[in-house]
């Protein structure tokens, strides 16, 4: 058996797979808001942050680990787990002093993890991926390197607010003393992995590339980026490593307390998007993944490591080798929910109903679907922009929003220079046939949905098995299958309708933001 964990924004979940039978044998989850109410973080982060700050309490993540294992041990026999790997929300960082390594090495099963590890924190709260507070830091890093194009050439992304390097710089600037006391900085994924391993583990190339610090050519930390970010940073960062690396055996804490096998191996962690690439069976170019969540993400394995000249898209390590693209759209469910609530609709009228009542292309009506600031494209939208009256009937508005979201996605993924052979769709709204069909028509590619909802945890379990000698191909064949009857083929007759819609969308975007769109 192999165990995959995913520490996401809202929950920590676990999934156990048995490669011999090709089945998922156990699944368990801890919801931060509902299960750990003492942290006052109903959605997994501390509400009310100012100046774009969005932080979470890392003690909540530690406490969730004990709770998750206690629940999992009740459900499944953990003595047969051969290896564990972890996935984590990307970019978030945890800051620890020199005592952390000793604390990890001497974990006592009689005392909760949080009591043993929390005293090592040098920063009480962790900035997470939703944080947009580091505009000044990004500019400083880009200036020091001679411009954003150079930061992007080295690290695969322009200096980006939520990325870890700019976040580290902000910490150094605002609390230099605590930065000085910091001995190690982890990503969320490598932090959880280090607790499991009982020692500081390396940061993999998948999640490491989301820091604006990793040189994509050498796959080591980049000295010029380190220097532009904060002093003495190399000494505070774990080493880098390939995702499929066994970091070592599990800490004795987990076998004594939860009966997990004492010979269980810990595989390096990765970010939730690289992990989902594995869990969605999309580690080879040609398959695009679209994940519909709080924010929508788009990612795909890359044939060549090209970068986005406009600086919205990112390049991360593909856990199966090579690279992947990632584009994050902040106005995902956030926007769908805002319009649904504004029109007083239920989900059924919202998607199936409205789409059935309106023609593809919406008779030329277009909406920039941004109910709040957007990162792709980067602009402080204060609400959606329409080329039609804002009191138009609800079905027209809903179609305009959904078409706008996926036209925007198509437009901002063109830098990849690749068209999808297949799209794999995941996340809450993916179950809706109307939305899935719309995506198939806009991208002119078949869309498949999956039986396993948590692609990131599944990807982690598959990575654990892969790093321990199982071939990736049979694992993905066994576990990454679309749900029966979930495939929707595109209507080839709509290709030209959506080509015209894309050019109308581009015109509206250019005239609104004033920025040219490639
Ligand atoms: C990716 C990103 C988000 C988080 C969500 O760049 O910021 O997708 O990884 O967990």
Q: Which oligomeric state applies?
A: single chain
Could you estimate the helical fraction of the residues in percent? 25-40%
Cα-to-Cα separation, first versus last residue? 47 Å
Low-pLDDT stretches are none
Relative strand content: 15-25%
Tell me which ligands are bound.
D-xylulose
Please state the CA-atom Rg, rounded to the nearest Å: 22 Å
Shape estimate: globular
Could you describe the 3D structure shown?
This protein has 518 residues and is an alpha/beta fold. The chain folds into 2 domains: 2-274, 2-Layer Sandwich (Nucleotidyltransferase, domain 5); 281-449 and 488-518, 2-Layer Sandwich (Nucleotidyltransferase, domain 5), CATH 3.30.420. Strands 1, 2, 3, 5, 11, 12 and 13 form a 7-stranded mixed beta sheet that branches. Strand 2 and strand 3 form a beta hairpin. The longest helix is centred in the last third of the chain and has 19 residues, at 495-513. The radius of gyration is 22 Å and the shape is globular. The N and C termini lie far apart (47 Å). The structure holds D-xylulose (XUL). D-xylulose (XUL) is lined by residues 8-9, 89-91, 129, 162, 210, 271-273, 297, 326, 328. Residues 8-9, 89-91, 129, 162, 210, 271-273, 297, 326, 328 line the site of D-xylulose.
